[in-house]
Amino acid sequence: MEDLLKIKGKNIVIMGVANERSLAWGVAKSLFKAGANLIFTYRLDRSLSKLTKLLSDNSYDAKLIVQCDVNSDDSIKNAFQEIGSKVGVIHGVVHSVAFAHSEDLKGDFINTSREGYAFAQDTSAYSLIAVAREAKPYMTEGGTVTTMSYLGAERAVSGYNVMGVAKAALESSVKYLALEMGKDNIRVNAISAGAIRTLAAKGVGSFNAILHKIEETSPLKRNVTQDEVGDMTLAMISELSRGVTGEIIYVDSGYNILG
């Protein structure tokens, strides 16, 4: 299987590990098992403390840990310059970063503030473009950029509000980036994960109802796990998916196919 994946020894940047329930952590676990070299980014010192403890508790060694604030172009540029200078080639980036103000998730969508709308877009969608731009010079052997989305990007999901609009922009950005970066043998895809109890999910008021709905109506009659999202992301980063780009891959027990 390692020969098929061709991921062992590759340098993969993981962005967005908040705690052990993060989708990014599920991806990291799958990549560690496959033998990849993982570079992690963090935003705040408290995030760094949580990340280093998580790595230590699981006996994982990061190749590098770098500070990066995705709301700052300078911070993103500096982060990838540091990564490039220390590891040379970047083979993949996992972008699992999204955020919206709680008042813009709990209130009515029509009352979304201008500042809240712009902040959600900047953090959750534009950051992918900025990250891809700064990572590209170091992806000299081709590679992948993979981000995390949700069904609320294409359907109106109660309580998802401004984040759904940001995810829609994210998915559109995936397609335009895939179109431009394909000539450099860089593939860009999104994983649309089903409902999982992450830190971000706590901000969605209808989350528990969504979990029960998926269990009742999805083809597999269950919710997906963090490990399942991680394994599919591994497949999309690896050579197994070398002919796939610009796609939104659903890992949601088939819930997305329902009318």
Strand order of the largest sheet: 3-2-1-4-5-6-7
Mean pLDDT: 94
Indicate the low-confidence ranges by residue numbers: none
Radius of gyration: 17 Å
* N-end to C-end Cα span: 37 Å
Tell me the name of the CATH class: Alpha Beta
Determine the structural class based on helices, strands and strand pairing.
alpha/beta
What series of H and E elements makes up the topology? Answer: HEHEHEHEHHEHEHHE
CATH topology: Rossmann fold
The tally of helices reads 9
Largest sheet: 7 strands, parallel
What is the number of strand segments?
Answer: 7
Helix content: 40-55%
**How many domains comprise the coordinates?**
1
Write a brief structural summary.
The chain has helices spanning 2-5, 23-33, 45-57, 73-87, 102-106, 114-135, 161-181, 207-217, 226-237, and strands spanning 11-15, 37-42, 64-67, 92-95, 143-149, 186-193, 248-251. By secondary structure, it is an alpha/beta fold.
Give me the secondary-structure topology.
Layout: H1 2-5, E1 11-15, H2 23-33, E2 37-42, H3 45-57, E3 64-67, H4 73-87, E4 92-95, H5 102-106, H6 114-135, E5 143-149, H7 161-181, E6 186-193, H8 207-217, H9 226-237, E7 248-251
Parallel strand pairs: 1-2, 1-4, 2-3, 4-5, 5-6, 6-7
Written account of the structure:
With about 260 residues, this protein is of the alpha/beta class. It has a single domain (about 1-255), classed as Rossmann fold (3-Layer(aba) Sandwich), CATH 3.40.50. The chain contains nine helices and seven strands. It has helices at about 1-5, 25-35, 45-55, 75-85, 100-105, 115-135, 160-180, 205-215, 225-235; strands at about 10-15, 35-40, 65, 90-95, 145-150, 185-195, 250. The chain has a seven-stranded parallel beta sheet, with helices on both faces. Strand 5 (about 145-150), helix 7 and strand 6 form a beta-alpha-beta unit. Helix 2 packs across helix 9 (about 225-235) and helix 4 packs parallel to helix 6 (about 115-135). The longest helix is centred in the middle third of the chain and has 22 residues, at about 115-135. The N and C termini lie far apart (about 35 Å). The mean pLDDT is about 95.
